[in-house]
Amino acid sequence: MLNIQGIHKSFGSLQVINNLSFEVKEGEFVAIIGPSGSGKSTLFQLIGGISTLDGGAILLDEEDIQLKRGTIGYMPQQPCLLPWRTILENVTIVEELQQQPHIEQAQAWLEKVGLAQFENAYPNALSGGMQQRVSFIRAIVSDKPILCLDEPFSALDEFTRLEMQAWLLSIWEQHRKSILFVTHNIEEALFLADRILVLTKRPATIKEEMIVPFERPRSEGIRHSAKFYALKQQLFNYLKEEKDDAYVD
Amino acid sequence: MIQAIKKGRTIIFIVFLLFIWELIVQFAQIPQWLLPAPSAIIIEAVQSYKAFLPHVFASVQLALLGLAIGIIFGLSVAVLLHRSAMIRELFYPILIVSQNVPVLVLAPLLIIWFGFGLLPKLIIICLVCFFPIVIAAMDGFRQTSPELKHYFEMIGATKAQTFWKLEWPYAYPAIFSGIKIAATYSVMGAVIAEWLGAKKGIGVYMTLAQSSFRTDRVFMAIFAIVLLSLLLFSGIRVLEKLVVKGRGLHAEHSRHS
Questions:
Q1: pLDDT tens digits for A189-237?
Q2: Cβ of B148 and A71 within 8 Å?
Q3: Facing residue for A76 by CB, picked from B147, B161, B166
Q4: Touching check for B146 and chain A: CB below 8 Å?
Q5: How many other CB atoms are found less than 10 A from the CB of residue A102?
Q6: Is B253 on the interface with A (CB under 8 A)?
Q7: For residue A31, which of A189, B61, B132, B195 is within the disulfide window of CB 3.0 to 4.6 Å?
Q8: Which residue of A has its CA nearest to B250?
Q9: Residue B253: band (very low, low, confident or very high) from pLDDT cuts 50, 70, 90
Q10: CB contact under 8 A, A70 and B155
Q11: Domain ABC transporter spans what residues (chain A) (predicted)?
Q12: What number is the ipTM of this complex?
């Protein structure tokens, strides 16, 4: 699936990513957490092909996707819906760039997640959480082998965020598309992912890898289990070490 | 409701000002060739509108044609300047400087070069219309939100796709602001162009009225110009509401009322 092989990236004298390697397997949900400014967005720019690598390789299904744009499904932090397009037209934009969009497929997805009634509405009629749902459906409908989610819920309020996590989980557990999920929210990563990669501070590389032991399908209940707390504490400590180091610098 | 009351107030105030004007003219006994009373202007308008209307139609035709060419020309220039850094570096400063040349001083030149036909008149209107459109459109393109641009990069849009599917529609409200300003200028441009020599038009009517000291007719022409500008302006606002969708807030901002 997605293979990141020893990549390096610097901006001038500032080294942002140093020998970073990991893999996302078919049907796997991988979360990346790291201290702020640890190069998470740079990583996405590299995978998205809008920035050049200084070393290493990025393979998607054995194919080098360096500087190849539009090979991944992408969901940004802000909904990024176009205000002059209806919800349906927004959802089909990615396909529209390359070929004839599959309108029926998009409609079916909106139907499936209960957004069918908004098909012909404009984004300004939807709440922030709803817009983010549309944004996620847009990434799915783009029909790429992997979805890259860049802190998708960080701009939402706490309550909507919890709701969105449960929503995302329920959809994902039915379809099992490979997902690479960047977040700075430990709980979110634990609740959603199969595997969590903890990044070091700049220059980023993998500090720790954690396999999340919870069974699927998961329920809200696991948030309150002792195991969840213990793992959360462990991840928190990893991040804290990176933070402390940063202050020593 | 509140807006309706506010509009009502404005109209009452204008009527009040006209009334004061009427009073001053009556009491100070100002001769009609110097300043006619509003009532005299209205009476003149009622009596001679049949002779006046063909002039109005001629000017409207000229203004609309000039505006249309100005819009097409202005938008093309804006797209070119926005999409090519080299062209922008070369021509943008010239464009700004050129706006310091008053159109009125160019008019005699245009007549020397192109005669008294339609062409020099259209060039004049085009010159006054295209600048606000170029500036507004370029601003609109530039103000496209960086998040959306980044998103378009990430989903693999080409430069052309990013422009036509993102920056161009994003700039609609700004473009319409520019067109609204240009529309009011276009009527003025048409009148100026007609002063230089034409067979028909509000400008011609004004020149004739002025040379025979029919000040009431001059005022009639002025009111006609104001009315036409307002009509064009609201026509474009209606068009804007039809074209700019899903952006209640933005449309609100770009309104000039």
A1: 999 999 999 988 888 888 888 888 888 888 888 888 888 999 999 989 8
A2: no
A3: B147
A4: no
A5: 14
A6: no
A7: A189
A8: A83
A9: very low
A10: yes
A11: 2-226
A12: 0.91
Closest-CA distance of chain A to residue B155, Å:
4
CATH number, domain B40-253: 1.10.3720.10
Which pair of structure tokens corresponds to residue B196? 């230089």
Contact (CB<8Å) A97/B249: no
- A214 in a structural domain: yes
Beta carbons of B156 and A97 less than 8 Å apart: yes
Tell me which DSSP letter residue B163 carries.
I
Instruction: Tell me which residue range forms the domain holding A50.
Output: 2-70+195-248
Sign of the Cα pseudo-torsion (A95, A101, A107, A109, in order): negative
Backbone conformation region of residue A156, classed left if phi is above 0, alpha if psi is from -120 to 50, else beta: beta
Domain count, chain A: 1
Which residue of B lies nearest to A49 if distances are taken between CA atoms?
A: B154
Give the C-alpha separation, B230 to A116, whole Å. 42
Q: Could you give the CA distance from residue A136 to residue B9 in angstroms, rounded to a whole number?
A: 50
Phi and psi based region of residue B29 (left: phi greater than 0; alpha: psi -120 to 50; beta: remaining): left
Number of neighbours of residue A234 by Cβ within 10 angstroms: 14
Q: How far apart are CA B208 and CA B197, in angstroms?
A: 12
What DSSP assignment string belongs to A117-163?
GGTTS-GGGS-HHHHHHHHHHHHHHT--SEEEEESTTTTS-HHHHHH
- Whole-angstrom Cα distance, residue A126 to residue A76? 17
**Residues B154/B163, Cβ–Cβ less than 8 Å:** no
For chain B, give every domain's residue range: 1-30, 40-253
Q: Residue B228: which of B187, B177, B180 has the closest Cα?
A: B187
Please name the residue of chain A whose CA is at the shortest distance from the CA of residue B148.
Answer: A80
- Closest residue in A to B245 (Cα) is A84
Cβ contacts (< 8 Å) between A67 and chain B: which residues? none
Give the predicted TM-score (pTM) of the model. Answer: 0.85
Nearest to A74 among B154, B172, B246 (CB): B154
Q: Which two tokens stand for residue B212?
A: 């025979």
- Cβ–Cβ of B154/A83 closer than 8 Å? no
The CATH number of the domain holding residue A235 is 3.40.50
A-side interface with B, Cβ within 8 Å?
44-45, 48-50, 68-72, 74, 76-78, 80, 82-86, 93-94, 96-98, 122-124, 142
In a domain, A34, yes or no: yes
Distance separating alpha carbons of residues B225 and B235, to the nearest angstrom: 15
Query: How does residue B248 score in pLDDT terms, banded at 50, 70 and 90?
Result: low
Tally of CB atoms within 10 A around B148 = 19
